[in-house]
C-alpha cells in the first residue's frame, strides 16, 4: 500500500475534486499527499463534521492536538539553536508568542488554507470561529506529520511557516519585567530597590531571595538560582501587584 | 566530524570518567552518545552549573524546554493512535497526567538517571528540588533528540519510557465531570437536570447551550458543538461553582 502510494498510483483513482484538493495541498507542502483523507480531516472544522451514530463528531480537533505538539517541538528546536545564550524562560515566552491564535490564523490564511478550505466546504454556509484558520493550520500540520513524517514537517515549518512569523517583533515584546519596573518607577518618580534577603543552599547550590521595595515599602519577592533570576521574578510579581501591564 | 563520531573514533579521546558516563548512557538509550557534552549538560541541574562571566548560568533548563516538547509530541502521537475514538479533550488531559512532575520523576529514577547523575556530580553535596529527576529526564530527552534525532528519541520514549507509565490508571482518573456531578447528586440527594437552552447556528454548524440545574436552581451553563460536549462543560463549570473536587 505504501509503495503503491509512493509511486503515485493511488492518484489514478482520484475524482476531479480529489485531484484539485491534492494539487492545492501540493502548493502548500511541495509534495502531493500520500493519504488524502488525513488532509480532508484536517479541513473539517469542529462542528462541521458529520456525527456518527454514537454521537462522536468527526472533526479536525484531534489532528489539531497532534499538530500543535509537532509545531511546538519544531519551534522549540529553532529557538534553542537560534538563541544559545537565552534562558528557558525567554524561549518559552517567545514560543508562546509565536504560536498564539492570532499569528497562526494569519499564517494559515497566508499559506493558502482559506482557499483550500473553500474547495472542501461551502464557506458561505459556515460561520467559523475567529481562530478557524489557526486551528486548521495546526490540524494540517498534524496531517502532514502523519502522512510524511517528522523530518518533512519540520522542513515545511522552517521553510514555509516560520518566514511568515515576525520573530524580531515578537522578541521585542517578550517581557523583560525588570526593565518594565524601572521604566514605571521613572515615570511615576518612585524610588525602587532590589535587596537580597537571603541566600540559601550551600557552596555549590544557591537560592537567592530578593525583595523589591518601592519608596521603601516591600511590594514583591522573588526566588531564583541567580540574583538576576530572583530579581526578574520579583519584578514579575511586582508587575502583577502594581497592575503594570506588559 | 559527524563521520568521525559515527565511527566511534571520538571515544578514543575519552578519559576514564567520560568512558564510564558514555557506558551509563548506552545502558539507557541503547547506543553510545555521539556528542557526550550534550548529555553532560543534561545532567547539570539548575543552580549547579557554573556561572559565566556575564552572569549566565549554564544548566540543563534549556535542554529541558526542548525535551519537554519532544516528549509531548511523541506522547501526543501515541495517544492519538491508541485512542481513535476519544476527543482532543481526553487526549490533552491524559497527556498532562502522563507527563506530570511526579510521574516523570519516578520514571527518571527507574531508567537509571539517578545513578548516571551520581557519576557526574557528588549528590551528597547537592540539595535537589523535588522534581530533580523529572527535570533531568526531560533534559536528557532533549540531548538525545539533538544527538540522535527525532526518530531515535521517539523509539526510546516508546520502548523505554512509556512502559514505566501506568496508562490504565492514569485514564481511570481522567476526569469525567458529568459522572462526578451525578455521583455528587446521589450522595447529597439532590435532583439534577440538564436542559438545552438554545441551539445556535444553521443546519450544518450547531452550537448547543446547556444549563444544569440542581433542585431546580441553575448552577452552571455550558456550550459545545454537541449536546454531550455542552453537558460536559456545564458539569465542569458546576464542579467549580459547587466546589466538587475531582
From TrEMBL, chains A, B:
It catalyses: Endonucleolytic cleavage to 5'-phosphomonoester. Its EC number is 3.1.26.3. The active site is at 68, 138. Its cofactor is Mg(2+). Residues 14-149 form the RNase III domain. Gene3D superfamilies: 3.30.160.20, Ribonuclease III domain. Its main location: cytoplasm. Keywords: Cytoplasm, Endonuclease, Hydrolase, Magnesium, Metal-binding, mRNA processing, Nuclease, RNA-binding, rRNA processing, rRNA-binding, tRNA processing. Residues 176-244 form the DRBM domain. GO terms for molecular function: double-stranded RNA binding; metal ion binding; ribonuclease III activity; rRNA binding. InterPro entries: dsRBD_dom, RNase_III, RNase_III_dom, RNase_III_sf. Mg(2+) binds at residues 64, 135, 138. GO terms for biological process: mRNA processing; regulation of gene expression; rRNA processing; tRNA processing. One of its GO terms (cellular component) is cytoplasm. It holds the Pfam family dsrm. It is found in: Cytoplasm. It is an enzyme of class 3 (hydrolase). SUPFAM superfamilies: dsRNA-binding domain-like, RNase III domain-like. Homodimer. Digests double-stranded RNA. Involved in the processing of primary rRNA transcript to yield the immediate precursors to the large and small rRNAs (23S and 16S). Processes some mRNAs, and tRNAs when they are encoded in the rRNA operon. Processes pre-crRNA and tracrRNA of type II CRISPR loci if present in the organism. Belongs to the ribonuclease III family. This is Ribonuclease 3. It comes from Algoriphagus aquaeductus. The lineage of its organism: Bacteria, Pseudomonadati, Bacteroidota, Cytophagia, Cytophagales.
